[in-house]
Amino acid sequence: MKITLSLWDTAGQERFGFLKTDFFKGVAAVGVVFDLSRPDTFDKIDAFLKDIREYSGNIPIILVGNKNDLKKELGEVIPREKIIKKVNQYNLFEYIETSALEKRNINQLFYRLVITALLDFRARLGEVVDSNHLRFKILLAGDAAVGKSSLIKAFITKEFEEDYKLTVGLDLLTQDVEISEEDIPKETHELIGKLYKSYKKKFKRYQRKDDVIQLIPNPDEFNAQSKPIDDNNQNDQKLGNPHKKRKFLLITISILIPIIVLFMVYLLFFR
Ligand SMILES: Nc1nc2c(ncn2[C@@H]2O[C@H](COP(=O)(O)OP(=O)(O)OP(=O)(O)O)[C@@H](O)[C@H]2O)c(=O)[nH]1
Ligand SMILES: [Mg+2]
């Protein structure tokens, strides 16, 4: 099955914190990242986890300990027991250690995020493009400079940059992934099948001439449907457009005035 991932690379710097609440809405699964060499980034994940639970409910979350390569020289800076405790405390799906620098567990991380999203797939959290193609949103959150952008970059372009280029607000990327059929739970398959059937019915009128179902409506019709209801517009429809109204008044006056003049001439001279 093909999955088109909408990857949301969020900014970790606190000055962008006001955006957090909007980021978490409609997300199918989240990776919460901390830096294995900086305990302060681990302590900050509570705030992220609380926000995610508040704004996205019980969606799957994977805890990500990044910069695993630094363990060689620094050892275990954050005790493993402490990390496992956090996983249990917040009922997180699992814990993965990654290294964007050494490309360790990069595909594994995104593959697991997709699988967790599929295990818990909810209709409102994605788009069924067709019975074999889904699209949904995956997000990485975490403190500044923990490596969120580097992980996404390593996944999409297989590159790594040593320079820190902070994310301003949010970066959006997309990537297609193929998920093997055996990894998709049976219930999810059934749900996708049902959703596809109902979408097919709903969009039947957008059927193309060649009999291929088009799930995305014709843009013109779509715009006409999705036009916001505007009070002034409604009034315009009821009362008529102001230009038309003025034209109507002018025609009425130009007809009425000669009639009145003729009537007065008749009264004055012919009676
Ligand atoms: N050693 C090592 N350094 C890394 C790794 N991943 C990222 N870095 C470095 O950490 C710094 C920050 O990485 P970013 O990916 O920009 O961090 P971010 O989480 O996106 O930061 P914000 O956009 O500010 O939230 C950069 O200098 C990266 O080169 C890693 O796996 N190992
Ligand atoms: Mg970034």
Could you describe the 3D structure shown?
With 271 residues, the protein is of the alpha/beta class. The chain has three domains: 2-184, P-loop containing nucleotide triphosphate hydrolases (Rossmann fold); 187-227; 228-269. Helix content is 44%, strand content 18%. Strands 1, 2, 3, 4, 5, 6 and 7 form a seven-stranded mixed sheet that branches. The longest helix is centred in the last third of the chain and has 28 residues, at 242-269. Residues 211-239 have low confidence and may be disordered. The site of magnesium ion (MG) has 4 residues, from α7. Magnesium ion (MG) binds next to α7.
Radius of gyration: 30 Å
Secondary-structure class: alpha/beta
| Distinct ligands | guanosine-5'-triphosphate, magnesium ion
Number of domains: 3
The CATH topology of the largest domain is: Rossmann fold
Main beta sheet:
7 strands, mixed
CATH architecture of the largest domain: 3-Layer(aba) Sandwich
**Total number of helices:** 11
Span of the ends, CA to CA: 94 Å
- pLDDT averaged over residues: 84
- Write out the CATH superfamily name of the largest domain: P-loop containing nucleotide triphosphate hydrolases
How many beta-strand runs?
Answer: 7
Quaternary structure = single chain
The percentage of residues in β strands lies in 15-25%
User: Helix share of residues?
Assistant: 40-55%
Overall morphology = elongated
